Amino acid sequence: MSSISLREITKAFGETKVLNGVNLDIQDGEFITLVGPSGCGKSTLLRILAGLETADGGAVRIGDTDVTHTRPSARNLAMVFQSYALYPHLSVAQNMLTPLLLRDLTTAERLPILGPLLSRSKRRALMDQVDSAAQTLKIKDLLPRKPGQLSGGQRQRVALGRAMVRNPVAFLMDEPLSNLDAALRVHMRSELAELHRRLKTTFVYVTHDQAEALTMSDRMAVMMGGHILQFGRPDDIYRDPDSLAVAQFVGSPGINTIPGEIADNGQLYVQGKRIATVHGTARQPVTVGIRPEHLTISHTGQFKGVVRHRENLGSDIFLHVAVEGLTQVAVLRANPDQAATLGAQVAFDMNPDRVLVFDSQGARVRMSVPKMAVMA
Ligand SMILES: Nc1ncnc2c1ncn2[C@@H]1O[C@H](COP(=O)(O)OP(=O)(O)O)[C@@H](O)[C@H]1O
Ligand SMILES: [Mg+2]
Fold first, then answer.
1. CA-CA distances (angstroms) from residue 154 to 144, 161, 182, 196, 319?
2. Can you give the residue range of the structural domain that contains 287?
């Protein structure tokens, strides 16, 4: 059992507090992403987990062992960096063999690696591990090549392979796809997810890209301001965010935010129009969050506006609509058949079931669902 637990981790660089008491519990075999804007402390947290950085306070546990003061090499975690850090003068096979040589051989055996001291059977056993990792990653035909003869995606796979041969407790990855072009990045997302399903080893993956987090992870931890704001399944983070900050961070195009108010009668109003019923919450000004796919064009729509921009993605068209009485533009998803032209008038409604309400502090105001009669 190798669950990972981070407890009350704090870290400051000089006067700058970077981590303000971070707690995170990762189950054995999970694919976790740490996601948040640049500078929010993701890499620092990952490096503390790896042992490459020392926390000011808090504890790191792997399985039943407190590793807070354990040196990195004894934690048996494999770090895969954004810069692949491959040895340029060694072949792919030798690059993948190196961590095994460093770990498994005595000093005497390491030196004459091609010589008589390293028994043939031992060398064969090590090469078998390299072969098996290469097989999993589908890079067997690349083994004789040098890193300079590989594409970015192939180098990324070799870097993963070098981590895999050590059979680590977990893979730690810091923005491993950011050097790749857009198409390859999307392809590698599905490869990494598939690799994770085959290996069933814990992945802790750092990214600033919410799309990577949503597409790959079992659970994602959204970090901001030195805290984890929310930790959960991508679906839940997207559909049911705890705060305006999380709601705005995930999703592309982003969620629409529109001023509204909850009145004494428990109704939610936007521009004087009744949107939904919000039981059990006090009268207050609120921010209404509604995603582009939950605004529906309709001739009888409550809201009216003019199309200012059309974002054509082929399968979907996002219409940017200047709404009467609102300062901000509303973005709504239309299917290409509803393709309104620039300057056209459109009317739309908000799906009341998918409206998210936030108070003046940005905390979620949950709409309590009216109780259903319980059948005896
Ligand atoms: N070694 C360091 N010395 C001083 N400041 C650092 C150091 N490492 C990181 N920082 C600062 O800590 C903050 C968080 O950095 P980092 O963890 O790299 O963020 P992220 O990976 O989320 O982009 C940033 O403001 C960064 O400038
Ligand atoms: Mg970083």
1. 13, 10, 15, 17, 39
2. 253-365
Looking up residue 48, the CATH number of its domain turns out to be 3.40.50.300
Same domain, 188 and 64: yes
Same domain, 240 and 306: no
Q: Whose CA is nearest to atom 17 of ligand 1?
A: 41
Which pLDDT value is given to residue 82? 65
> Is residue 135 a contact partner of residue 111, using CB atoms and an 8 Å limit?
no
Q: How far apart are CA 331 and CA 195, in angstroms?
A: 36
CA 376 vs. chain centroid, Å, equals 44
Ligand with minimal distance to 42 CA: 1
- pLDDT tier, 297 (very low <50, low <70, confident <90, very high otherwise): very high
Whether residue 336 is found in the same domain as residue 187: no
CATH code for the domain in which residue 292 is found: 2.40.50.140
| Residue 13 Cβ < 6 Å to ligand 1 | yes
Which of 9, 35, 38, 44 has most ligand 1 atoms within 8 Å of CB, for mutation?
44
Residue minimizing CA distance to atom 20 of ligand 1: 39
How much of the chain exceeds pLDDT 90, in percent?
Answer: 66
Q: List pLDDT tens digits, range 28-46.
A: 999 999 999 999 999 999 9
